[in-house]
Specification:
Layout (H helix, E strand, L loop, with lengths): L5 H15 L6 H20 L3 H20 L2 H38 L17 H16 L9 H8 L2 H4 L7 H4 L11 H33 L7 H32 L17 H7 L2 H18 L5 H18 L4 H13 L1 H6 L18 H22 L3 H10 L11 H23 L16 H18 L12
Length: 483
């Protein structure tokens, strides 16, 4: 069950009516309702994996209490145990077969016979997201930043919170658990804000991302048959498709959270208007970037502080490789992370790492030429990296790279492909224009201050809804649900 389906709408309407009417002002009952709804949602999507998330929730709930009751040494041991359990879950379910295959390939390349069988392991959807929630919870309890959860139902509802369970954002316990301690009362303004954000997310996902997927699927499905022109276009538009798809999901998840009375972590801050790779990662998949920054980069950087810039670069590269590898069990993701880690080196050496100046505009409302060049350069660097990210293997990455220089093949554009591509780019222009105008807002449809006339605003909302109905592409699975 996906969040932009009629099945989800039916599911959510029932939840909404129960959650806000019979259970109004009943904190415990609302948390029970939220947990049951989350498990139903997850069970419909991946029934076999319900025992995994339930068992992990019990283990980490107990560990949180033990950490709080123990002295520093024992608390550190319990925290380390929890981190090992969390990482072990990821390794077993997500990476074990990959490591087995890689080991077999290595042994064979050395001239030895290897006949190692991979295991029949089911991949739990959303495990990368709820595992990081579990780990951050224990670390924050050990650091004394939060008290351990005593209410198991509230804790389990946080871990399994259905709008963000399958594709994020990765909510921190510091921000989310306190919201479960009091009853949620229906807030009309907050619900309307959430509804507008859902509408914007649906537009990005169904009108832009799903249409682009038709063109990009034909290219990536057979890279060798396309010439350089087609591959260059595909490389340049793929970041847009990925952004429209993933940020579209995030907008929908955040919007559903708002309707239910929750403030969910912001996951994107207009990454295509950034001027270097550091700004980009502070604006792209922000909940993951901040998680890795706090729990991986900062400890490593402190440990290597005496190494100066070398230590900072090493910490950055390790962190980016982890971010890359978090996305999936393939060397393409590790290389993708390494690539981005190396892009930080000029920023570190120039002393501009960690510094960010506000983007200024000229009298026409556009960025100054120097900033525009940096924005375009950053986008090109990101586009090149996304070739690695989207490849099924490093060999396909290499095939794509070689194809970028091959203009000898006849053009592979079809009339239908060109039509879909230009339609997608037209709506992309609308998206980017709206987000540029609203770049100081959480999302582009927060237009009350920009357009005070209520009639005009509602006309815009209805226009977007009509565009969704008329121009939605073929239904595509959310890209980040596979991670």
């Amino acid at each position: 069950m996906v969040i932009n389906s009629f099945n989800f709408l039916f599911f959510f309407v029932i939840l909404f009516l129960v959650y806000y009417f019979p259970l109004k002002n009943k904190t415990g009952a609302q948390n029970w309702c939220l947990l049951i709804a989350s498990y139903i949602f997850y069970g419909i999507t991946d029934l076999n994996m319900l025992p995994v998330i339930f068992t992990a929730t019990i283990i980490f709930y107990i560990l949180g209490i033990l950490i709080n009751r123990s002295n520093n040494k024992k608390a550190s041991l319990f925290t380390a145990l929890g981190v090992l359990v969390g990482v072990g879950m990821l390794v077993y379910f997500k990476y074990l077969n990959f490591f087995i295959d890689s080991f077999e390939t290595l042994i064979t390349s050395l001239g030895f016979n290897a006949n190692i069988t991979t295991l029949n392991i089911l991949f739990p959807l959303g495990i990368s997201f709820f595992t990081f929630r579990l780990i951050s919870y224990l670390i924050e309890v050990n650091r004394g930043k939060i008290e351990p959860a005593r209410d198991f139902i509230a804790f389990a509802a946080y871990i399994a919170f259905f709008p963000t369970l399958l594709a994020g954002p990765i909510d921190r316990p510091n921000d989310f658990l306190p919201q479960l301690k009091s009853a949620r009362v229906f807030d009309y303004n907050m619900a309307m804000d959430g509804t507008r954000q859902i509408l914007w997310g649906i537009f990005k996902k169904m009108v832009i991302a799903d249409n682009m997927a038709i063109f990009l699927g034909s290219v990536w499905g057979d890279v060798g048959s396309h010439n350089a022109t087609t591959l260059i276009v595909a490389a340049l538009v793929y970041p847009i498709q990925l952004y429209a798809d993933f940020s579209g999901y995030s907008d929908m998840a955040i919007g559903v959270g708002k309707i239910l009375g929750f403030r969910v972590a912001v996951n994107f801050r207009y990454p295509f208007f950034t001027r270097n790779i550091a700004e980009y990662w502070r604006s792209w998949h922000m909940s993951l970037t901040s998680w890795v920054t706090d729990y991986v980069f900062m400890p490593i950087n402190i440990r290597f502080r005496s190494w100066g810039n070398v230590g900072l670069i090493l910490a950055m590269i390790i962190s980016m490789i982890i971010i890359g590898f978090w996305h999936g069990a393939d060397w393409t993701f590790a290389v993708f992370g390494l690539y981005h880690g190396l892009l930080f080196i000029p920023l570190v050496l120039s002393g501009s790492f960690g510094k960010s100046k506000k983007l200024k505009v000229n009298k026409f409302g556009a960025p100054f030429m120097s900033d525009l060049i940096k924005i375009i350069s950053t986008y090109l660097l990101v586009s090149f990296g996304k070739i690695i990210f989207n490849s099924q293997s490093l060999s396909q990455t290499w095939e794509f790279m070689k194809g970028l220089l091959n203009f000898s093949n006849p053009t592979s554009f079809t009339a239908d492909g060109v039509r879909i591509l230009f339609l997608s780019l037209f709506f992309t222009f609308i998206m980017l224009f709206a987000e540029w105008k609203q770049r100081d807002k959480e999302y582009a449809l927060q237009i009350e201050s920009l357009i005070p006339q209520k009639f005009t605003r509602f006309a815009i909302y209805w226009l977007i809804l009509i565009l969704v109905v008329l121009f939605s592409g073929e239904e595509q699975v959310f890209i980040y649900m596979q991670f």
